[in-house]
């Protein structure tokens, strides 16, 4: 995944803008809360509190719905199937066969379900009936079933997960790369159904979360701080800004120690208030460690 440099801009005041926006949002939230509680008279304040507790209880009940409840003794899942042979609903094919192919059923009516013809599944929690045609496939390496078509994915044995076929010869291998939470939204990536992107450093992140980072002018990996795209044009703009912004005389010869987040080189460089450049890889993605 890489970004077009037309979308990358230097915004010295971006942090201030974000901070101001956050303050404004906090103030708006505070006003909203005051208005919400202000609408309750002292006589009805107790009723408002009870209503709020009731809403919280309903939300908790919704989150806990179906927790540790599974359809049958054969499979740990929360869906049922519609049998194409008799148009009845069962927890699984084994449940169907036990009910429709036993000594208590007329021999002429006994039958097994044609498992390959099952095309409808029903959610055990909400009752929604839906198609099964999501191009499911079982990955022996992952040990679970995935969707999207087996021809569109490959299993990387070193990373221990399935990636898009487009990344087959272009991703850096990191052991257990997807066996952790997304560093932005904290969803477990290995079982996630959202698109996942492999960063140049080898760490993984949801594609949508990476886009959200870009929208907030964040171009460094949340885990290791390495750049997530080619920033060379941005560094050129930093060169121009620094050349046009000389430091006051007391700071012109000030030297500081830095660590480059991109190449890991430790250096002693001249201090500048805007940024400090790595002499090894020419990156401004550095942090001051001393001085």
Characteristic key phrases:
291 residues; alpha+beta; single chain; Rubrerythrin, domain 2; 4-stranded antiparallel sheet; Leucine-rich repeat family protein; 5 helices; Znf_CHY; elongated; zinc; 3-stranded antiparallel sheet; 13 strands
Care to describe what's here?
There is one protein chain. The relative contact order is 0.08. The chain is elongated, with a radius of gyration of 29 Å. It has five helices and 13 strands. Mean pLDDT is 80; it is low at 1-39. With 291 residues, the chain is of the alpha+beta class. It is 25% helix and 17% strand. Among the domains are: 79-131, no CATH class; 137-215, no CATH class; 246-290, Rubrerythrin, domain 2. A hairpin with a 5-residue loop joins strand 11 (255-260) and strand 12 (266-270). The strands form five sheets. It has a four-stranded antiparallel β-sheet. The protein has helices at 14-38, 45-64, 93-100, 207-215, 232-243; strands spanning 79-82, 89-90, 120-123, 129-131, 137-139, 144-146, 153-156, 161-164, 196-198, 204-206, 255-260, 266-270, 286-290.
Short description:
The chain contains five helices and 13 strands.
Poorly predicted regions are: 1-39
Helix-strand string: HHEEHEEEEEEEEHHEEE
- Please give the share of residues in helix: 25-40%
Structural class determined from secondary elements: alpha+beta
| Total helical elements | 5
What is the average of the pLDDT values?
80
Largest sheet: 4 strands, antiparallel
Beginning-to-end CA distance, first to last residue = 36 Å
Relative strand content: 15-25%
Tell me, what's the shape? elongated
Q: How many DSSP-defined strands?
A: 13
Read across the widest sheet, the strand sequence of neighbours is: 2-1-3-4
Alpha carbon gyration radius: 29 Å
Domain CHY-type: 65-144
GO molecular function: ubiquitin protein ligase activity; zinc ion binding
GO cellular component, one term: nucleus
Organism: Hibiscus syriacus
